[in-house]
Amino acid sequence: MKTKVLLYNPKAVFFDMPLALLAIGSALDQKKFEVIIVDGRIEKDPFKILSEHIDDALCLGITVLTGSPIKDAMDITNKTKLKRSDLPIIWGGWHTSLFPEETLRDEANIDITVQGQGEQTFIELVDAFHDQQPLIGIKGICYRNDKNEIIKNPPRPIIPMDEFANVNYGLIDVEPYFEKKGNRQLDYISSTGCYFRCSFCADPFVYNRKWTAISPEVMVNKLKELHKTYKFTDLNLQDETYFTYRDRVIEISELIIDRSLNFSWAATMRADQGSRMSEDDFKTCVRSGLRRLLIGVESGSQEMMDWLKKDIKLEQVYRCAQLCSDLNIAAIFPFIVGFPDESQKSIDETVKVSRELNSMHHNFTTPIFYFKPYPGTEITKDVITNGYQLPQTTKEWSDFDYIGSSGPWVSKEKYEFFEKYKFYLKLAYSKQKPIFKPIQYMAKKRCNKLNFEFPIEMKIANILLKNQELS
Ligand code: B12
Ligand code: SF4
User: Fold this and answer.
1) What CATH superfamily is the domain 3-152?
2) How confident is the model over 93-136, as pLDDT tens digits?
3) Alpha-carbon span 410 to 395, nearest angstrom
4) Coil, strand or helix: which one is 45?
5) Which CATH class is domain 183-391?
């Protein structure tokens, strides 16, 4: 009889496959353990499903991002403990990588937190529970000892991804994800970590600027198998920086072409990496199915980019944009505004560059986010020194909402300006039906003059969208 291991993905927006749980669940010895993944985003009553297994499970592992997913993770944790107080509950993922001890300090029902890459750590934890061994030597965890003291074990150095077992998508039913996404898009992760040092990003803290990836041959063999089994039409590469090594990306693309694997794919690219690739390299990617890139710009001001330690030049962004436009590759160029003490000049430059990029191709978008201090980043340390108070407890972190809102550094006027600008920018340069051409023409004029007075089109769109929601 196999021993049951329960895994839970909290409720969240969007329906990306639970790659973290697939990774740690697949790493376990499948002959010894029965891995049960429950996804709060897919199931109507996830706790009901978990309840059916709690009595004879070995442990429950939950993956946790900072923000609202903590609420649901806490709810499931507390309900599980009520049902079975001796079941070890482990939280892993980005939040507990950034707050290892604090999470245990605040929440008595969580027994262990995991930091960084989780596969090997989870193998060792599950074996320790199974064999009733102590947790003392397990790297990359934080736990309570017999005296109820919180102990933080040494970190676990990143392990090459090729050393782990293949990810077993059979641990989930992929069809509900395809259905929710509206297409047969498979999420996949081919690398972990990032070598860079952007000061607004948590990655350098969690992975210590290390990077590891699945080698091309192994990856494409796996993709071939997955393609045959799931007949996906699009591959969503969730890597932080898929284009870290040009040679690896080209080898993967050539293998996809050689094996006649017929699907499109999307990935994240840094502009410096892209600008070092030749046009032929881009063409090879397109022939292998590349349909969309996400290229973080963050700011239209080179000075601001340098302050963010982005290590990218604006010319590199434009070179990538030109190649994408020429080769008909869709592109998303995200920006951030509202950094502490950001000058009007920097904001103006972001407006200018986002408009220019948007106008280069109807399939280019430039989402503009407001800066919010993410835990663990260098800028966050600065804003704390200058008096900003971050949430203090796990409960407060669960109320911290990144999406849509801005920090105190954005005035009401600026916020309103950007909300209007974003609306008109999208309208001005995206593909529109002929009937909307006159409105599109007006939107372009507004964006060129930055005149958003009497935003009648925006009001009508809001009314229409509201009505749509109600129906
Ligand atoms: C898919 C994704 C999402 C999905 C959520 C997926 C889900 N499962 O719920 C969606 C689209 C909803 C999302 C939203 C957001 N995301 Co997001 N997202 C990602 C992305 C691109 C991939 C995550 C993934 O699957 N990785 C692959 C797996 C294998 O890696 P992993 O999750 O790190 O898991 C490993 C370890 O962490 C550990 N582990 C993880 N869980 C567990 C659990 C246990 C029990 C154990 C033992 C180990 C363990 O082991 C795993 C294998 O090594 C990452 C970037 C990245 N490449 O990781 C960003 C990332 C996680 N997102 C991030 C952010 C900032 C956001 C947003 C705030 C973005 C925004 N501005 O809108 C929002 C809001 C999040 C929220 N609060 O709701 C940050 C993390 C911030 C944080 N502190 O949590 C990341 C790292 C991007 C970044 N560099 O800034 N995101
Ligand atoms: S923003 Fe991207 S490139 Fe910069 S450190 Fe984070 S993951 Fe790396």
Assistant:
1) Cobalamin-binding domain (3.40.50.280)
2) 999 999 999 999 999 999 999 999 999 999 999 999 999 999 99
3) 25
4) coil
5) alpha beta
